[in-house]
Amino acid sequence: MNLRENPAAAELAAGDAHHAAGQLDDAAAAYRRAVALNDRLAEAWWGLGCIDLARNAYAASARCFATAAALCPDWAEVRHNLGKSLFELGEIEAALAAFIEAARVADSTVRDAALAAIATIIPGCSAADNAAVLHARRARAASRSPAERSPRPISWARMRADRLRIGYVSSFFDRRNWMKPVIGLLNHHDRARFELHLFCDGPSPGADTGFQPQDRDHIHDVRGAPNDGLAAYI
Asked: Cα-flanking dihedrals φ and ψ of residue 129, to 5°?
C-alpha cells in the first residue's frame, strides 16, 4: 500500500508507531486524524480506544470499541475491551454481552480472559439466576488446564476452630464496581459463626467500596506472592 496515496492509512501507521513508543498524546492525535479521513478504519478506533481505556476514560473508550466492533464483529479483543469499558461504567448487562461475544469468537488466550470476566461479573447481573452463575463458573473452570483444575485434598482437621474459617483471594477488593456482589456477601457473614480472611493481591477494600470490616477480621497483604507460595500460606 502506498501511504502517500492513502492518507488515512498513513495516519494509522503514524498512530501505531507513536503508540508502540509510548507517545500516547501523539498516537491519539494521529488516530483521530485517521478516523476523520476514514471513519471505517477499525484499527484506528481500536488504537484510540486502547489509549482512552489506559487513561480510565471509559465512556470514550466504550464509544471507540463499539464503533470498531460494529465494523469488525469478529474482532475478539475489541469485544473484550468493550466489555471492560462498559463494566467500569456500571453497564453490567451490556458488559456481560460483550464478554460473551468475545468468548464466542476468540482464540484461547482472549477466550480465557473473557470467560474469567464473565465468571467474575455475572453475579452482579440482575437477569442472571443461580443456574446462570453456576454455568459461567463451570465454563471458566473447564477452560483451565488440567493441572490448574486438579483439586488438592482438604485436611478437615485444620477446621476445628470455634468458627469456620473462610477466605477470599482477589486483586480487585478496592474496585467498587467489580466487587459489589462480593462486598455485599462479605458484609453479611455472621462473624459469630465465620472467621473472615481476605487475601489481597492488590489494595485492600477501602471505605468507598462499602465493606464493613469487624475487629476479628483478618486482612492479608499477599501482593506479589506466586500461586504456590500463596497456596502454602493459606
From this structure: -90, -175
Look at residue 193 in the predicted model and tell me its pLDDT.
Answer: 84
**Cα–Cα nearest to 40, from 7, 75, 77, 8:** 8
| Confidence (pLDDT) at 162 | 61
Query: Do 97 and 163 share a domain, yes or no?
Result: no
The CATH number of the domain where 100 resides is what? 1.25.40.10
The residue segments making up the domain with residue 126 are: 40-146
In terms of domains, do 129 and 202 share one? no
Q: What is the pTM of this model?
A: 0.65
The per-residue pLDDT for 159 is: 41
Distance CA(87)–CA(62), nearest Å, equals: 10
Residues contacting 37, CB < 8 A, separation 6+: 7, 8, 11
